[in-house]
Amino acid sequence: MSDQNQFLSAALKAWKTNIDRAGKFFSSLSDEQLLQEVAPGKNRLIYLFGHLTAVHDGMLPLLGLGEKTRPDFDAAFVSNPDKSRSNLPSPQEVKESWKDVNAKLSAGFEKFSPAEWLQRHTAVSEEDFAKDPSRNRYAILLSRTNHVAYHMGQLNLAPK
Amino acid sequence: MSDQNQFLSAALKAWKTNIDRAGKFFSSLSDEQLLQEVAPGKNRLIYLFGHLTAVHDGMLPLLGLGEKTRPDFDAAFVSNPDKSRSNLPSPQEVKESWKDVNAKLSAGFEKFSPAEWLQRHTAVSEEDFAKDPSRNRYAILLSRTNHVAYHMGQLNLAPK
């Protein structure tokens, strides 16, 4: 394996580790447990589960891997705070979407060459990317891995 | 810049972003605020501040950059839970150590070549590293960046 691929494979491994950890965490919870708050007055587990799912769904267009599969998750879990809406997708829907979205990402990740990882993500224009080539797909991979870890820290505070 | 260095520079940038965010968070807090818990019955801010500092101090020997500067922080902030010991280093000591340790890491990071980032970290034997070359310094950089993000998620739950 080339040195270059070793940097890339390390980041892909870190992504997978964090996704597997989060998936295992959520799949072990009952619907009732998902309605708990991570701490008094804070987000509920189901909200953070939907939030991570929605953000990962958004990585599909961001990385050029396709359209969002559940654009309705944004209003439910990203652009509005928890407990502000009466109609949320069900725990079962979130569980299915989590698996579906992360499987689509994983399949897309396998197809990117190292050079493709260093191409711009779709939220940056060609002009801006020319000025700052660090705004690439690989940077998204790293920042979204950190984003999972950030919320896992909160999720692990919830009463067991 | 070579493609290889673009992968490396993305991870170094993510590290710096997370360190700067945590440093800004902690430096804005009074000693009294540092004694708050992130959530009822959970770790205090000072404990997590010392914990991150101690873990980063441990990166110095792990990456071959020198000895730990504050080995006493381990008993205070890593190997024993919060509120189990009466004598903790003071907030001022933690603030100073945080700056010192992260400056030492930053200086060390600048000197590593890409090839040196892919060398083994010191917690893995040469024999085990030969079997699994993913146990390198770069993997430590990624996992410790995630570790900061994990605890920042918790720290941001604390009452403002």
User: How many structural domains in the coordinates of chain A?
Assistant: 1
Under the CATH scheme, the architecture of chain A is: Up-down Bundle
CATH class division of chain A: Mainly Alpha
Secondary-structure element series of chain A: HHHHHHHH
How many DSSP helices of chain A? 8
**What's the overall geometry of chain A?**
globular
Largest sheet of chain A: none
- Overall SS class of chain A: mainly alpha
Rg calculated over all Cα atoms of chain A: 17 Å
- Beta percentage of chain A is under 5%
Overall average residue pLDDT of chain A: 96
Q: How much helical structure, as a percent, in the residues of chain A?
A: 55-70%
Most extensive interface between two protein chains, with residue counts: A-B, 36 and 36 residues
In total, the number of strands of chain A is: 0
CATH homologous superfamily annotation of chain A? dinb family like domain
Low-pLDDT sequence parts of chain A: none
Terminal CA distance of chain A? 42 Å
CATH topology of chain A: Four Helix Bundle (Hemerythrin (Met), subunit A)
Oligomeric assembly = homodimer
Describe the model.
- The structure is a homodimer of 160-residue chains.
- Chain A is an all-alpha fold and 160 residues long.
- Chain A has a single domain, classed as Four Helix Bundle (Hemerythrin (Met), subunit A) (Up-down Bundle).
- The first copy, chain A, is 64% helix and 0% strand.
- Chain A has eight helices and no strands.
- In chain A, α1 packs antiparallel against α5 (91-111), α1 runs parallel beside α8 (137-155) and α3 (45-62) packs parallel to α5.
- The longest helix of chain A has 25 residues, at 3-27.
- Chain A starts with a helix and ends in a 5-residue tail after the last helix.
- The model of chain A has no long low-confidence stretch (mean pLDDT 96).
- The interface between A and B is large, with 36 and 36 residues.
